[in-house]
Amino acid sequence: MRMTLDSICQVGFGVSLGSLSPELPDIPFAKAFDTVNEIITIRFFNAFWPIERALNIGKEKILKKEVGVLNSFTANIIHQRRLELQGNNRSDVDLLSRFMSYNENEPDTFTDKELQDAILNFVIAGRDTSAITLSWFIFCICVNPHVADMVFEETKDVFGLQDSMQGYTFEEVAKRMSYETLSTMHYRHAAMTETLRLYPAVPRDGKVAAGDDTLPDGTRVKQGDRVSYVPYSMGRMEFLWGKDALTYNPDRWLKDGVFQPESPFKFSAFQAGPRICLGRDSAYLQMKMTAALLLYFFRF
């Protein structure tokens, strides 16, 4: 979680939190973010939360305080970025700066509140999902050590490395990483995808119908109806994946050593159609980089 938080903050809005520093410091933003997520989830099971909010008591009182921490953090980022964009040290390399640069050409396209919401959406999308998937990936290779061996061998071959006893540093291996080299790591991509098939980061998801509709199987949906689907269960259905649906097998994604994607309506971990995850390729890239370093230098 610390690694992916640092990553999305750097890429998303050019801020280095340093939460993965050796001393593992407390990060008020991260703590507030988790608390807010937890309390909002509890609302699903607490019918009295509107009363608590109106009276400013209980969990809702804590929520109000922690939301203030989030708002202060995001407002400071926007203020700092605006000063940088106006000065000589202009940089548009992070996503927030690109949003704000667009605002210069199309004034009032995004309000500060919308920019704050964008920052939180980046964190929601970029932190937990990748961290959860990497955690399950480590679990899967512990149960299936031959997969870890295959990933290790692939890392050596693609990066032109010797055995890990040769004394490479993390930096030396990381410098050999590029979009091109990582894109040739088909087995690692398959292992990550197989992890997501069995342990999707969002195991259950739902949508609210914007209008009356009819689903492909003839089911009628009325405006406002909530439709849920469960990628966790879909990844375990034999009629979709065969008799070995419960077996962790990266080879099911490979043909002659090359990764073969499935329809996103079958493999729905990243959603499908117009709402498919915009950060899918970025998430794979980050997870493959992390896995390459971890499995080259450590045995699990």
From TrEMBL:
<dbReference type="GO" id="GO:0004497">
    <property type="term" value="F:monooxygenase activity"/>
</dbReference>
<dbReference type="GO" id="GO:0016705">
    <property type="term" value="F:oxidoreductase activity, acting on paired donors, with incorporation or reduction of molecular oxygen"/>
</dbReference>
<dbReference type="Pfam" id="PF00067">
    <property type="entry name" value="p450"/>
</dbReference>
<keyword id="KW-0479">Metal-binding</keyword>
<dbReference type="GO" id="GO:0020037">
    <property type="term" value="F:heme binding"/>
</dbReference>
<dbReference type="GO" id="GO:0005506">
    <property type="term" value="F:iron ion binding"/>
</dbReference>
<feature type="binding site" description="axial binding residue">
    <location>
        <position position="277"/>
    </location>
    <ligand>
        <name>heme</name>
    </ligand>
</feature>
<keyword id="KW-0408">Iron</keyword>
<dbReference type="InterPro" id="IPR001128">
    <property type="entry name" value="Cyt_P450"/>
</dbReference>
<dbReference type="InterPro" id="IPR036396">
    <property type="entry name" value="Cyt_P450_sf"/>
</dbReference>
<dbReference type="InterPro" id="IPR002401">
    <property type="entry name" value="Cyt_P450_E_grp-I"/>
</dbReference>
<comment type="similarity">
    <text>Belongs to the cytochrome P450 family.</text>
</comment>
<keyword id="KW-0349">Heme</keyword>
<keyword id="KW-0560">Oxidoreductase</keyword>
<protein>
    <recommendedName>
        <fullName>Cytochrome P450</fullName>
    </recommendedName>
</protein>
